[in-house]
Amino acid sequence: MITALLVDDEPHATDRLATLLSAFPTIDVIGTARTVDDAERFLAGRTPDVVFLDIDMPGRIGLDLATHVAPLTGIVFVTAHEDRALDAFRIGAVDYVLKPVDPDRLAITIDRLEARFAVPAGGTANRDDSPDAVAATAPDTVLAVETGPSGSVPQTILVTLAGMSGVQKLSVSDIAWVEAHRNYTSVQLVDRRPLLVRSTMTDWESILVPPAFGRLSRSLIVQVAVIQSLRWRSRDQTLVFFGGIDTPLPLGRAATARLKELLPH
Questions:
Q1: Which residues contact 114 (CB under 8 A, 6 or more apart)?
Q2: Which of the residues 62, 92, 225, 236 could staple to 55 if both were Cys, CB 3.0 to 4.6 A apart?
Q3: Any idea which architecture 138-262 has in CATH?
Q4: CATH code for 2-117?
Q5: Per-residue confidence at 160, pLDDT binned at 50, 70, 90?
Q6: What is the pLDDT at residue 131?
């Protein structure tokens, strides 16, 4: 799963791009932003795999945001201006797509993203700063998850940590959310830093079951019971605050709507 943030000051352009991207099962749009400032606030809480970024926006331009994007995050510029491609590729853009976005041209971009984030069968990623390279050295990377008898709803899970012998027991109730990151999932625990887990969202969906947990998108499952409050930030962004976690989780419009359906009225 490749998670994406869309940044464009024109709502119709963002909506159209989101619609086009929905045709690709490997892409999950986790948020949108209309300004560079809104995008920076979103990126303070979540790290998408790729940012689809307009250049010409009111106030700060897209190139201003590009210099603040995390090293692991790819950038695809989506713009009506042909003359900024050199600037875009100088800062390491994955691709440069002209508006109006052509679906066939977008498919080429997705192929490039899938190749960029793919891991060969041998297990070695195609770039040093990939999640697999990070996982190979991270002391808290989970290499295995065991849940008990088939068909049972686990109350605890047993995890094997890289560089350690034996297993560690984690309570399912301590999991605030699980988010896909390419070939891994990030597990945010209450009162603890997240774990990077070699498991799919489908694996987690069989462990984190309703009504305690809800899947908000292709790449995100949250525990409803530990949510303390929601704070509306803009039309495109809502902050979710969890007990025992200092940093809020930013959500886009679609995920926010889904969460509101799950929350008790």
A1: 2, 26
A2: 62
A3: Beta Barrel (2.40)
A4: 3.40.50.2300
A5: low
A6: 44
Q: What average pLDDT is seen over the chain?
A: 83
pLDDT band at 161 (very low <50, low <70, confident <90, very high): low
Q: pTM for this structure?
A: 0.75
pLDDT for 177-199, tens place per residue?
999 877 778 889 998 888 887 78
Q: Can you tell me whether residue 174 is helix, strand or coil? A: helix
User: Cβ of 83: how many Cβ atoms within 10 Å?
Assistant: 8
Identity at 156, one-letter amino acid code: T
> How far is the C-alpha of 156 from the C-alpha of 169, rounded, in Å?
7
Instruction: Report residue 214 as tokens.
Output: 């809800």
Q: Any idea where the domains of the chain sit in the sequence? A: 2-117, 138-262
The tokens for 239 are: 């902050």
CB-based burial, 194-217: b 16+ in 10 Å, e otherwise: bbbbbbebeebeebbeeeebbbbb
Cα(3)–Cα(201) distance, rounded to whole angstroms?
Answer: 13
Q: How many CB atoms lie under 10 A from the CB of residue 239? A: 18
Q: Provide the β-strand partners of residue 95.
A: 76
